[in-house]
User: What shape does this take?
Amino acid sequence: MTAVTIDRVEKRFGAVRAVAGVTLEIREGEFFTLLGPSGCGKTTLLRTVAGFADLDGGEIRFGKRRIDTLPPHRRNTGMVFQNYAIFPNLTVAGNVAYGLKARSTPAAATAERVAAALRLVHLEGYDGRWPHQLSGGQLQRVAIARALVIEPEVLLLDEPLSNLDAKLRVEMRGEIRELQQKLGITALYVTHDQEEALAISDRIAVMRGGALEQVGPPAEIYARPATPFVAEFMGTTNLMAGKVAEVLGGRIRIAARGIAVEAQAQGHAVGAAVIASLRPETLRLLRSGEAPPSGWARIEATVARVELLGALTRVELRAAGGTPLKLAMLDLPPEAVAPGKAVALAYDPARVAVFAAP
Amino acid sequence: MTLLKPRSSFPLAVAAIAFLFLGLFLLYPVFTIFKAGFLDPAGNFTLVNYVQILSRSFYQASLGNSLEIGALATLTTTALGVPLAFCLARLPVPGKALILVLAALPLVLPSFVGAYALVLMFGRAGVVTRFLRDLGIPFGSIYGTPGLVAVYTVTLYPYVVLPTLAAFKAVDVSIEEAGQNLGASRWRVFRTVILPVVIPSVLSGALLVFMETLENFGVPFVLAEDKPILAVEAYKLFVGEVSANPASAGVLALVLVLCTTTALLIQRHYLARRRYATGARAAPPELRASRPWRILATLYSWGLVLAALVPFFGVLAISFLEYRGPVLQGNLSLGNFADLMHRSTRPLENTVLLATAAAIGAAALGVPIGYVLTRFRSGIAHVLDVVAMMPFAVAGTVLGIGLVISYNSGWVILTGGPIIMVLAYMVRKLPFNVRASSAILHQLDPSLEEASINLGVSPARTFFKLTVPLMLGGIVGGMVLTWVTVASELSSTVILYSGPWATMTVVMFEALEGTGAGIAAAAAAVLILATAVPLLLVYRLLRRYELAVM
Assistant: This one.
């Protein structure tokens, strides 16, 4: 188990700052995810840890040991590549044994450890198979076994699931998380899929333009985004720009394009320009005549469109002033919810995130 | 994603070796030859040589002829090659796989043999000429421009066909469908979408044809007769009928290098930016063609590839006929081969030995350079890229003369031995080896190497343990192609060989001037078989190379 310190790391490609002075502490045994849209610098940051990208500034340490001065083959990281990078000229066992041979592990120990690693990823009996005989999911398992068998200090995963189909992706991410927990290994994971990041991580760093936007546990990142960018990137949300109309203790009232939004927030003065974020699933549909729970706020709106997704139903609405609102609910909508119908909604102001407008 | 390894000394080492090698055996000799052009017999700087040579209408004509013949050959190869490429890419022509093999063959068969075959068949005393004459049909002369253009056309048209075929196949069918869907007719789509996408490839192939004609020595030597041609005149000035004249040869060499360099620069800088990537997932389907069109396409495709091989089949056939002195008899005989082998088997052994040494040497040098070019995007890689392509711009004759002037005295004397020949071949074949290996590497995902390094194997060991084995099929294919082209090399061989190290091409070259037409035919036949057999044996390995040649 190793803690990883990324200290003011800088990486430029020409004039572009791919990683712009990032500082991060990844704890021992933590599953840490770098999340962001393509081009945000997450893969580059991972590659600086692996040693495939030179630093233009800063340091990287494993524990107290500085490693960014080491060549990549001396860093003892286990990397799982996006396209698996399974050596096509070696069998499954040959692939898994590759790193052990590089470390001059005795043959008997190598055989034992290869077998154990294959057992770990549920590939017993596949030793002699060739890569071209395996499915995508199996290749993925070989890649993981190959990275784990060398007992790396840190496991690096570069979008390892992006080449798998949706069902397998969900299955494999569960397995990767389980393995990481079982071995207690520190893992640095890169993805652009926010659902994957939420499902698998102890902590997430959301990146944008080479810099960190927010670092925190999944629940915090989702529910209390630090910026409108994070709010939108982590899932569908209603962003509403407006001005603070009133401050009442821990609560503020925001006047936004024809509707008033209430939020539990501190530090916003009357008249300040702000953006409020309200997740669709925090909006609740009130049955006719039903009163909102105490402390909740209420919005009147008209149904514009209903989209049935099976377990989930998405409803698009127009509030006063034409402000579009998105609402998500489990299960099927009541019959009263049809395009053109007027409905009443309620939400808990504590679930509204408020940011100072840029 | 490129592989950037911190503080790896591997690319530096490769670059250092490459620069040293090319510096010693390409740049320095070429520099010496240019310098010779600026020196008077006493060793002082002078422009007299330039004034003398360039003011003579004979040498002005040699430049004009070279350019004119090059331009004509470029036009004919393009005019014949583009329709063939289209037929092979899009029309139902039977036996396409075989046509492709046959169409690629002229690239590796010695063009000099093609020229010689033409003389044996259609020359003044040629088989066909005499046959026609006996029938009372007059036959024009094939010497001079018509013969040269004809030989260049049949030996160089694959340079246009192969990249154009690839370009036609790379046009995604959805682009065509989109055009038609928007209301354009088939012909309009072809004219407005497909052709513009294909033209850069056509032009790059055509420029290659142009360069090859400029630097070719054997074909004009056989066929030009009194017509002065730059590459031949440089050779004649250097060898000298009365006395050798390296200074004047240096002047013509500079002119030749300037022409080829210009063509190369146009190819690299103008066309490189005009390649359209269309990202075809699969080759576009064959077009539905009416019966007459199908027949026409079939006749055209088969007709062209077979006609282009006629000189080679012809020389094979002639080699089995009996010669008495220069006079051809009608009967079959193995006498030519007996005469050839009776004289000495040494040239054949030399050819095999030198070509093998050159193939190994060029691969040993070219593969690491290709690797560094493809995998490292540093400043050194860019410089290396340019330097490694420079042999392209230096005609074999020029390189040969430069090597002789540089290494026939002083500290290192290489002239007269086999080493200087192998070095010249390695220099000349380096660009091909570099391009071929970087073409294979482009198909190898760099993350494989990263995975190996990540697992604890150093970059240099990863290259030898993982990359080389993965590239092996391709490397062997490249070596075979190098082998066959070296075996039929004439332009630098003819300057660098010494008595005991004569090769098969030299035997043919010498037989041309004497009376050994039969021996020359047998030598040509041996050479054709020696190059065609290994090619066909490793054909599967080679398929991916046809395009790397470009």
Notes: Chain B touches chain A at residues 1, 3-8, 445, 447-448, 450-459, 462, 466, 469-470 (CB under 8 Å).
